[in-house]
């Protein structure tokens, strides 16, 4: 559960590349109702303000806060479940699953592009087989 708005261009690009590689396209199986995934989240023990930006937060402070939040996420046992939740909702604010809102938008755009490319490849492949 996090809330950065965006990160530096290089840091964001690197984080998004790593995240895209680490995030499965399919949503993980839902946990049993009596034990939701977020009960084991590392962020439940930390200050919520670390994951969500106060209004008019200076850029340097935001980047430092987001990095601290990502460090909490890095040791979290439910990082992937959290990230998939934020991507599926989609959560518009905060650091979730080690990604800022801007980084999640990039991951979602890449997934959409990849899905479109796969649909096109299947369509072209089906035409070749039929033709």
The succession of helices and strands, N to C, reads HHHH
Number of helices: 4
Q: How many DSSP-defined strands? A: 0
Main sheet record: none
Strand content bin: under 5%
* Helix fraction by DSSP (H/I, runs of at least 4): 40-55%
Which outline best applies?
Answer: elongated
Could you report the average pLDDT, rounded to the nearest whole number? 79
Rg calc: 17 Å
Distance from first to last alpha carbon: 50 Å
Oligomer: single chain
Protein described:
- With 131 residues, this protein is mostly helical.
- It is built from four helices and no strands.
- The chain is elongated, with a radius of gyration of 17 Å.
- Mean pLDDT is 79; it is low at 2-17 and 19-29.
How would you briefly describe this protein structure?
It is built from four helices and no strands.
Any chance you could write out the topology, listing elements then pairs?
Elements: H1 9-22, H2 59-74, H3 79-88, H4 101-130
Helix pairs in contact: 1-4
């Amino acid at each position: 559960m996090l809330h950065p708005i965006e990160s530096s261009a290089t840091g964001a690009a690197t984080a998004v590349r790593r995240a895209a590689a680490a995030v499965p396209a399919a949503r993980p199986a839902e946990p049993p109702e009596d034990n939701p995934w977020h009960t084991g989240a590392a962020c439940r023990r930390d200050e919520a303000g670390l994951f969500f930006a106060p209004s008019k937060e200076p850029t340097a402070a935001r980047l430092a806060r987001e990095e601290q939040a990502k460090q909490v996420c890095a040791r979290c046992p439910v990082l992937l479940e959290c990230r998939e939740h934020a991507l599926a909702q989609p959560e518009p604010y905060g650091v979730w699953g080690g990604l800022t809102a801007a980084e999640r938008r990039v991951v979602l755009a890449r997934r959409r592009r990849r899905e479109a490319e796969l649909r096109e490849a299947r369509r072209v492949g089906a035409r070749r087989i039929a033709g």
